[in-house]
Amino acid sequence: MNTKLLYLLLGLTLLSWGIAKKNAAVTSDAAVHTSLVNPALPGDNPDPSIIRIGDVYYATSTTNEWAPYFTIYKSTNLKDWTLINHVFPEGFKDMKNQWGENNFWASELAYDAKQKRIYVYYTAHNREVKGNPGLQCGVAWIDADQIESGKFSDNGPVIIEDDCGAIDAFELQENGKIYAFWKNDGNGCGKESWIWMQEINESRTKLLGQKKKVFTNSQPWETALVEGACFFKMGDYIYSLYAVGGCCDARCNYKTGIARTKNLASGVWEKYDKNPVMVSNDRWKCPGHGTVVRTADDRLFMLYHAFNKNYDVFVGREGIIEELKQGADGWPVLHNAIVANRPKAELDFFDDFENKKKLDLVWQWPSKLHRPAMLFDNGLKLSASGGNRDLGTFLGQFIKSVDFDIVAQVEPGNAAAGICLGGAILNSKWPGELGGIGIAASKKGYIVFSNLDGRYTVLKQLNEPLTGISTLKVKISGGGKLMDMFYRNGASGWKKFHTLEFDADKYVPWGMGYRAGIVVKGKPSESGLFKNFELKNN
After folding, report:
1. Total domain count for the chain?
2. Where in the sequence is the domain holding 464, given as residue range(s)?
3. For each of the chain's 538 residues, which pLDDT tens digit applies?
């Protein structure tokens, strides 16, 4: 072969290899950015917090007016999350002196490597204190090796603001000391809202020394409050990402800012001149109130909440994760361009009660009530009641889209056992008071019911003696605003029983999304038998 030709071919080969290598690097970089799956925590998971212990990540979220209180999720890759526990699985029964009544907000995880313990700071309203001062921050703990199967021990309220109440506690360990941060809930009582800090003892039972102001709303873009502040270290600085504005309903205007200091003791915080660093976009609404975690390879990720704009506010605030990277000016930035890329098939749920011996962790009940009585005997036998404004005993779970089917097989008995979409009683004094609309079966036949307007009403009824197994279905479509009710006897085909337009905006609970679940209305001595339950997203 000609020598010149040989060198030419060799040069072309090297050039093409270089181009391929360069393109491969671009592809690899893109893969890093697209490797995250969002929402990380689908459904109603506001105020998420995240920590890493070794190669394992743990996350928690607000449960608002639902029990069990405060989720505990686990992941090894920041993409796939499993619900493994709750801080208070039995609700207020697990709290010291049963002190919490409602407003179960902003659980924050902290790991003490020396003690090998996980602490959780959380907000609740003290049942002994009226008004805003009743918002207090408690602390509970568990040995890290018991996180999946053990029970947290509650220290009770630790951070108390006698004036306007305390919420959104956070922990930072710095120079051998432990600091607690929180927000005084001034916007709830017509006063200024500040982020505060104070040293706390190692057992997290008592604040030490004097509390100090950190920062408040001071930049032109900041509205009436700052809250949900998290703290992390990068380089020579301690940074704080914080939320501003209204968080929790269709009128929300939440945004995220960032501030930093080189010395906690100085009390001098510099706010970024390019704030806000995260705002609503064409995909997500009102992003904020999250926590930053550092990976083993020294990357930073923030887990925060936002409303999916395609779902309005009906699903609630979902847990979103994205990477923080240092900008040219030295400040860590969020690119604010996350897409919802989690496959809908991963959002489906099926519960075969006949093969279970205990209740799946996803099921919830109203936070002010005791855990409903139940047993597993060829299905889930759920005790009946006339509670929840005559709706009956309810177990639900958060929805994860606005077009879905709720399906369950029931064995008709004396009580009316069925399925429903759970929202909020209109104009209730307690925003979390449960209302529902759905279809139920008993030995007498089928009914479509609702108590969303405060009074239990049968919307449609079919008197037909039932035996054997009945299958019920509620189909939600039209972006959450159209409902079709179906039933099926034995192996027969579906029969459409009732159709109605649903005013989803009217009954969405403040700060929460809707729940899909099962319900049993009847005497306390009666029960409903459920063979299975399915939530299928369309």
Report:
1. 2
2. 346-537
3. 444 333 333 343 333 333 232 232 222 233 333 489 999 999 999 999 999 999 999 999 999 999 999 999 999 999 999 999 999 999 999 999 999 999 999 999 999 999 999 999 999 999 999 999 999 999 999 999 999 999 999 999 999 998 899 999 999 999 999 999 999 999 998 899 999 999 999 999 999 999 999 999 999 999 889 999 999 999 999 999 999 999 999 999 999 999 999 999 999 999 999 999 999 999 999 999 999 999 999 999 999 999 999 999 999 999 999 999 999 999 999 987 899 999 999 999 999 998 888 999 999 999 999 999 999 999 999 999 999 999 999 999 999 999 999 999 999 999 999 999 999 999 988 888 999 999 999 999 999 999 999 999 999 999 999 999 999 999 999 999 999 999 999 878 999 999 999 999 999 999 999 999 999 999 999 999 999 999 999 9
Statement to judge: residues 84 and 212 lie in one domain: yes
Residue 301, domain member (yes or no): no
User: pTM for this one?
Assistant: 0.92
Report if residue 223 sits inside a domain.
yes
- Give yes or no: residues 271 and 414 share one domain: no
Strands (DSSP E) contained in 367-513 are 374-376, 380-383, 393-398, 404-411, 416-424, 434-442, 445-450, 457-463, 470-477, 482-489, 495-501
CATH number at residue 530: 2.60.120.200
CATH number at residue 185: 2.115.10.20
Cα gap 438→443, rounded to integer Å: 17
User: How many contiguous H segments (helices) and E segments (strands) does the chain have?
Assistant: 3, 36
Name the domain boundary from 273, 288, 303. Answer: 288
Query: Same structural domain for residues 255 and 382?
Result: no
Active centre residues (catalytic): 47, 227
Residue 184 lies in a domain: yes
Asked whether residue 47 is assigned to any structural domain, the reply reads no
Contacts of 228 by beta carbon, 8 Å cutoff, 6+ apart: 47, 106, 168, 183, 242, 243, 247, 288, 289, 290
